[in-house]
Amino acid sequence: MAEMQRAAESDQPLLVAEGLARSYGRLTACRDISFALYPGEVLAIVGESGSGKSTLLQLLSAQLAPSHGHVSYRMRDGILRDLADLGEAERRFLFRTDWGYVHQDPALGLRMAVSAGANVGERLMGIGWNNYGRIRQTASSWLQRVEIDVDRIDDAPRTYSGGMRQRLQIARNLVTEPRLVFMDEPTGGLDVSVQARLLDLMRSLVNELGLAAVVVTHDLAVARLLSHRVMVMKEGRVIETGLTDQVLDDPREPYTQLLVSSILPP
Amino acid sequence: MTTMIEIDNAEKTFTMHLQGGVKLPVVRGVSFAVDAGECVVLSGPSGAGKSSILKMLFGNYRCDAGRINVRHDGAMLDLACAEPRLVLNVRRRTIGYVSQFLRAVPRVSALDVAAEPLIATGTLREPAREQAAMLLRRLNIPERLWSLPPSTFSGGEQQRVNIARGFISNLPVLLLDEPTASLDAANRAVVVDLIDAKKKAGAAMIAIVHDDEIRRVIADRVVDVTAFGAAA
Description:
heterodimer, A: 266 residues, alpha/beta, Rossmann fold, 6-stranded mixed sheet, 10 strands, globular, B: 232 residues, 5-stranded parallel sheet, 4-stranded antiparallel sheet, 7 helices, 9 strands, 34% helix
């Protein structure tokens, strides 16, 4: 806990975006985006469809190269490196170990036809684990952590409900103890009661593990529950940013006020 | 006496863009200071800006002008221009906020809701839960409810869980937004005792209370918010 606290208050950013922009032909999806994410910090990117938030997530997670600007990440040696200059081995280390990526559609982040245990174990084998018993034991402890009945370890996720698939995807991502997790609409497409359970689970895991996360969501309730800080995007730009409760309770920009006032009270 | 809070010419205006950009001035020229071990009560009619001032002090509302100095880790820090993660650090270690309303998190038990601020500052889970249990008992929350999430509790029970959560930590500054509203006489007396104990422990408190009797008992000083009326 004390260690986590120190990590959360670290003075060195984990991920830094500087002047990021991306255009598709004449269409500009993102422009002029700069921020720093610190260890243990959860940043929500909110905005409606087409605001550029998913493009931004792809730029930050090195799945898309920026047209302008840079994304840098502090590798485990403590040195901040431009993602564009990383070698293949370093990129692999990020994707397989140090980063997680939770897709909105679990079918994109899981292998649907192999067992749940293998889905979690595969990430461990990717970082060199080869003791079958140990892999299986770790996989079952992670299934328990995400509240999946261990009896289902040998079933393929295509036999799982939507909420279970999403929890399995989270387990697969977290088993390598990443320092940074990207999440793209992690609760999208789930029933409200299933969403609440998933959110609660994500909130406690992020806290316990001291993870940094970038969460893209159009749901302000998700941003409020999970994030420390929020960036509001519109037409490819960040139009407002700050402490999550401050932006949501005292929105300054017209578009943010519209977003906040469009929520139906429960 | 150590000054814990020093507000200097703080100002807040809401601009309502969805209503044609109409400006709602809330407060202007807010200036007062609070020492350790002192409870200052904000007074003024409803709508005078008492809650807004409290929210600015917590960093929940932005401050448009002026300074909000808070003693954090031994040095004064201007919360009005602090970065988000610094504000969060101040909330974890320096300023606590007790509102009337509990923002319940699904599936977290009343005991854990109350214990969480202690755990967040490094107390181990079990001792934190023991302290939470002590407070819940003192605030007359029946033990059979402790393991349940408070979202299903009555308004008064939720408020008392929130009070337990607010008073459990040893933060040097506490903001109290009508902590006794809608409580019965016995529970009001418990809250008055809790406030008194915090004072003796050296906490600086800023409170909003509508009950004249409670105000008379807890206030070391009253600051009249109508003096900061932005319309004036």
